[in-house]
Design goal:
The chain has 22 helices and 21 strands. By secondary structure, it is α/β, with parallel strands linked by helices. A seven-stranded parallel beta sheet has the order 6-17-11-10-9-7-8, sandwiched between helices. The chain has a seven-stranded mixed beta sheet with strand order 18-16-15-14-12-13-21, with helices on both faces.
């Protein structure tokens, strides 16, 4: 009986092999298992080998052979290709019969592992038999082939895997993105250097297997990702311990809600940056101009005519200038669209469970749009977006790769460029101070744009950089060093003018006279976003692809402006007005000029345009800036949470198990 079943199994495996072979040929792919010796023909690729001993090898990670022998006996999926009456088939059937008997297949295979994939030296028929039964693992004696370190992303990820393997002890815990294992450790409640016990290994593999079934049902095998990659996205919303409390249908449902965020990992650029509103968002009368009765009826069926909007603030407008700036934006929205929006406001909402509850309460009261005005609220935004996919949720932050939550910030560097011009004009010796907030997305761009503005009118200008996240009195330090023109924090809103905001000049009596400051006009942003929902612009942006959306609007959208002091000299004021028109119209771009970074690298020859992504993710300073981007360990404690969320080097910061998983 056992041998007859083995014969039938060979017939099934043969069909699977023939199907895989034809499919590979049809799509122009190599139809046989790859050969490691051919991959590593250049010995210079190899740094060394390591004897790993006998391991339980994940079957799906066995992809090829060590040598070219028996090359054509197997299809690329390791299923057989030779006829049932061949000697090869008889040996395959004997092994299969042994597998079905009480004896089983006991002898470990011998193989080589390279970049997390296994290549069989001895035992390829054993692999074929066990793969035909979907065996999860196969015992094997493993020799690891270690590649030389290089800039190849695959090699870099593999080196991180080798380090993480010392902790997890599992080949199944592999990722395609650097920094992922540290995030997994945090999500599981472990310290960064925690070594997994046998029980913890079994617990994780059990959960991973359960998750994998849902992942495959949704087509995960078609994505260039690993199952742990996808699980890490799921763990941003749900704790690991809740995984098996979901039925398979419940797990499939909540994974479906997160599927766009999983698919976005496959993009090299997962975020689509919107740099300006569409034309119909600029014109307050545009929604009234749809021609014809049929057009109006069609629009009424597709898009809302009235919206309930909620604002979630960490602090009150009375205690926080940032919250006040957004609250002024909320007031502007209500004044401009009073007949079409109802607004709820939730103040003093702490990130975490309190924010979850506030957003649920807002939705329970009818909210269709939620603006969460600070980056630490992003974790709650993610949870609520997964539970309520029909609610439009926006978080005031930058570069968050989540399709369910749109993020928004502004190109404040354009305003900094203008104030840099003023600083250069007002500084006789070119010695200019600059106080930066935190090393987060957009801040290096603001520093560099300010420096470019200063050098435009004063080629001798040097920018002396201090950080308020490192130094408790950076302005005082600069003044004591003899700097008389200083750029401090920007105005959140133009109605809060007080020293020492913005660009200031030190007076003989010791006080600081304001000269100018960039500021945010969040009201213009909120009105344009709500108008886009009424006009279909929101959906149109979604139709451009399955990327996350980051609104990053600037002076041309009237979301950023510069407040000028009445005491500013007339000539400087006139120059500023000319430059503002140029920046707004697109004829002037701060970085389109010869530009070197501090390390001497040419960043621009004066002809190229920096993309929005390049500007937003700048992590270098130009050569006329004196000072560095501070390391995470140098930051004051109060600054570390925001840098974890938005820091230009956030992926290199070891995660904390108490912090939101990004």
């Amino acid at each position: 009986m056992g041998r007859q079943e083995a014969v039938e199994q060979y017939a099934k495996a043969l069909k699977m092999g023939q199907r895989a072979y034809k499919d590979s040929v049809l799509h122009g792919n190599y139809p046989y298992p790859p050969v490691l010796d051919e991959i590593l023909m250049d010995d210079a690729l190899i740094a060394g080998q390591a004897d790993m001993g006998v391991l339980e090898i994940p079957t799906e990670q066995i992809i090829g052979n060590k040598t070219a022998g028996r090359r054509t006996a197997f299809a690329s999926n390791f299923m057989p290709l030779l006829e049932p009456d061949s000697e090869f088939a008889n040996k395959w059937v004997d092994l299969c019969a042994a597998h079905l008997s009480d004896e089983g297949i006991r002898d470990p295979i011998r193989c080589y592992e390279y970049l997390g994939r296994f290549y069989v030296q001895e035992g390829n028929k054993r692999v074929s038999v066990l793969k035909s039964y979907d065996a999860p693992t196969i015992p094997g004696y493993v020799i690891r082939v270690i590649p030389h370190w290089s800039e190849d992303p695959a090699v870099q990820v593999y080196y991180e895997f080798m380090a993480s393997y010392q902790l997890s002890g599992l080949y199944q815990v592999c990722f395609t993105r650097p920094g992922s294992f540290g995030k997994l450790q945090a999500a599981l409640g472990y310290e960064p250097d925690h070594v997994w016990s046998k029980e913890e290994q079994k617990r994780f593999l059990s959960g991973l297997t359960y998750f994998k079934a849902a992942y495959k049902k949704l087509g995960g095998c078609e994505l260039p990702l690993t199952v742990p990659d996808a699980m890490l996205v799921w763990l941003r919303v749900y704790p690991f311990d809740t995984l098996k409390t979901f039925s398979s249908q419940e797990l499939l449902k909540n994974l479906t809600a997160l599927w766009p965020d999983i698919k976005v990992l496959a993009h090299s650029q997962p975020i689509a940056v919107s740099t300006a509103p569409a034309a119909d968002q600029e014109d307050e009368h545009a929604e009234k101009e749809t021609p014809g009765l049929l057009g109006r009826l069609f629009k009424a069926m597709l898009f809302p005519s009235h919206l309930n909007v909620a604002f979630i603030n960490e602090r009150t407008p009375e205690e926080s200038d940032w919250a006040r700036a957004h609250d002024l934006g909320r007031q502007y929205l209500e004044a401009m669209m009073a007949d079409r929006v109802d607004v709820q406001v939730f103040n003093s909402i702490r990130p975490g469970e309190e924010a979850d509850a506030a957003m649920e309460a807002a939705i329970g009261s009818g909210a269709q749009v939620i603006f969460a005005t600070t980056p630490p609220l992003i974790a709650s935004c993610r949870k609520i977006a997964a539970k309520h996919p029909n609610v439009r949720i926006l978080n005031c932050s930058a570069a968050m790769p989540y399709t369910g939550v749109r993020t928004y910030y502004s190109r404040i560097y354009e305003g900094k460029f203008i104030t840099g011009v003023i600083a250069g004009a007002m500084s006789g010796d070119g010695n200019i101070g600059y106080v930066a907030s935190n090393p987060i997305f957009g801040v290096p761009a603001s520093i560099n744009a300010f420096a470019m503005g200063a050098q435009m009118v004063n080629p001798r200008a040097r920018i002396r950089l201090k950080w308020s996240c490192v130094d408790e009195d950076p302005m005082g330090d600069l003044m004591r060093e003899g700097v008389s023109v200083l750029s401090n924090r920007d105005l959140p809103a133009p109605d809060r003018v007080r020293e020492p905001w913005g660009l200031c000049q030190l007076q003989p009596d010791g006080h600081l006279k304001p000269l100018a400051s960039p500021y945010w006009h969040w009201g213009n942003f909120y009105v344009k976003i709500i108008r886009s929902i009424f006009n279909g612009g929101w959906e149109a942006l979604s139709a451009n692809g399955d990327k996350a959306v980051n609104y990053w609007w600037g002076m041309n959208s009237r979301v950023v402006d510069v407040l000028l002091s009445e005491d500013l000299p007339a000539g400087v004021r006139q120059l500023v007005k000319i430059l503002q028109l140029g920046v707004t119209g697109g004829s002037i771009e701060p970085f389109r000029r010869p530009l070197r970074s501090q390390d001497g690298q040419v960043r621009s020859d004066g002809e190229r345009w920096f993309s929005p992504e390049e500007i937003l993710h700048m992590d270098w300073l130009c050569d006329c800036v004196e000072g560095d981007i501070p390391a995470f360990t140098d930051l004051l404690p109060m600054s570390r949470s925001i840098v974890r969320l938005q820091g230009v080097y956030r992926d290199a910061i070891p995660p904390e198990k108490e912090a939101p998983l990004l």
